[in-house]
Structures are given as structure tokens and as C-alpha cells.
Amino acid sequence: MSIQTVRTVADLRAVVGRWRQAGETVGLVPTMGALHDGHLALVHRARADCARVVVSLFVNPKQFNQANDLAQYPRDEDADRAKLDAASADILFAPAADQMYPDGFSTAVAVGGLTSSMEGIARPGHFGGVATVVSKLLLQTLPDRAYFGEKDYQQLVVVRRMTVDLDIPSEIVGIETVRESDGLAMASRNVHLTPEQRAVAPTLHAELSQAASEAAQGGDCGEICAAALARLKQAGFDPIDYFEIRDAETLDAVTRVRRPARVFVAATLGATRLIDNVAVKP
Ligand code: PAF
After folding, report:
1. What angle is formed at CA 126 by the lines to CA 80 and CA 230, rounded to 5 degrees?
2. Residue 261: enclosing H or E segment and its boundaries?
3. CB within 6 Å of ligand 1 — which residues?
């Protein structure tokens, strides 16, 4: 195995500093582990773009708004390391919680506006935790580019805003969602679905796709979303936190699509909350 595991910020900075002195570009892929092909697509892209690739693995307690979700979040560092080694990542940065949040840690990064809808409402405090940990990871690594999946599209837009606002000198690169053959977006939490729920789960992507096509043809977004939401309820999703069509850049609600937009959904199947989104191209 040639991937190196780094546990401290000081060690990470020492290695990245040597790469920088040699004039090498650096890509960062922030993750919470439980890696699947969606994460590996980010690593492959970073590998193609940059001379060196750091993948962080930190299950960030600050972005979980429910203690049982944090406790049940899947963890397997050895399996993750083997996947990253096969994908030719250079460093697995896997800090302990007290390395990221030592005693006395008192700072929070808050992004306004873009966080006031969807996940920002359904998961109070979530984006504060994401913005705080991602700003730390960016400042610890100072990568040329950092890679985020479009599956968490609102997160991608929030991180982009934060990086610009805080003058962090890294480019934020969004990567298309990787899906199973039946359309289900790959996600670490999918392992919690029972076989019955797994059979129903692709309905989410089917409804997103139908809504995107109806909206692209000029349909009323409110009516399209209400109909999709009712069908998802019928299929067994409960609760459905939102099914909405919003501007792809500002995340403002739209009634008819005239600029690039996205359809967003968050819905729970059994005990598993799934989120997904697709593009609407007018
Ligand atoms: O998308 C995730 O896995 C997390 O929100 C991230 C970006 C690694 C921050 O903890």
C-alpha cells in the first residue's frame, strides 16, 4: 500500500509544504468516509487534474443535527484506505475529533442566504457545521482545487460562496452525481435500506427526472412538485421534507423555469433519509 495516512494538521502541512516546494499542484477531496463510487469519481477527477491528491476522512459531529444519525453513520477506515490506495490518492488525512476541534474551540462559520432553504430548514445547524469543517480543511491543506459531489448540490453552492467570501485561494469543482443502474444516487446511507426499501428508492430519481422534463417544457413548478410529492407519499416516502424546483445558482424558488434550475428532494424511506437533485435545462 503506498497511500500515507496522516493524523495531524502539522504533519499534513509538512507533506503538502514539500509538494509545494517541488511545484506540484494539490487536490483535496473532503469526505466522511464510507466511500462508494461517487466519492471515487471525485478522487479520479482530482487525480486527473492535480499532481497530488489528499482525501480527508472526518465524520464531522458539528454537521449532524441528530445524535443517532451520527452514531449510526457507517465507518470503515481500513476499507476506505484500500479503495483510496487503489485510486492512487497520495494522502488519507484522518484526524481525530480533538485535532479538528481541540478544547476551547469557539469559532463557527455561517453562510447566509443560500442556507435558508431545503437542508438549511430540515437540518438546523447542518450548514454551520459543514462550512466550519470545510473552511478548516481548505485552510489546513490550501489545495489548488477541492472536489464536491453535485448530489449535495446545496452544499456545493454554499461551499463555493464561502470560499469566495473568505478569499480562500482554492477552486471548488462540482462533479456529477454517480448513480446505480436503476437511477438511485450513490450515498453512504444507502447501506441502511432494507431490500424492500431499496426496490422503492429509485422512484425518487424517476420523479426528479419527470419533474425536470415537465419544468423544462414550461410547466408550473408548484403543480409539478405537488403532483410528484403526492406520488412519492403513495410509494411510501414519509416524511418528505421538500420537493422543490429552484434556480441552479441562487437557489431561489422558481415558478416557471427560464434559467438553469434544479429539482431537489429530501425524503425518508423507513429510517433512511435520502436526498437527490437533477438539472432542469430550459
Ligand atoms: O459531503 C460530505 O461528505 C461532508 O459534508 C463534507 C463535505 C466532507 C464535510 O464534512
Report:
1. 95
2. strand 261-269
3. 30-32, 60, 63, 130, 133-134, 152, 155
Rounded to whole angstroms, the Cα distance separating 80 from 262 reads 31
Residue 14 C-alpha cell reads as 509538512
Residue 154: name the closest of 184, 123, 182 by CA: 123
Which residues pair with residue 273 across a beta bridge?
Answer: 268
Helix H or strand E encompassing 147: strand 145-149
3-state SS string over 78-101? HHHHHHHHHCCCCEEECCCHHHHC
**Catalytic residue at 39?**
yes
Kindly give the pairing relationship between strand 171-175 and strand 52-57: unpaired
Which one from 39, 44, 126, 205 is the annotated catalytic residue? Answer: 39
Cell of 29: 477531496
pTM beyond 0.90: the answer is: yes
Low-confidence residues of the chain: pLDDT under 70:
none
Distance from residue 32's CA to the centre of ligand 1 (Å): 6
Nearest CA to 148 out of 54, 273, 39, 48 is that of 39
pLDDT digits (tens, 9 = 90+) for 196-237: 999 999 999 999 999 999 999 999 999 999 999 999 999 999
Tell me how far apart the alpha carbons of residues 223 and 237 are, in angstroms, rounded to a whole number: 19
Which residue's CA lies nearest to atom 5 of ligand 1? 130
Domains detected in the chain: 4-175 (3.40.50.620), 188-276 (3.30.1300.10)
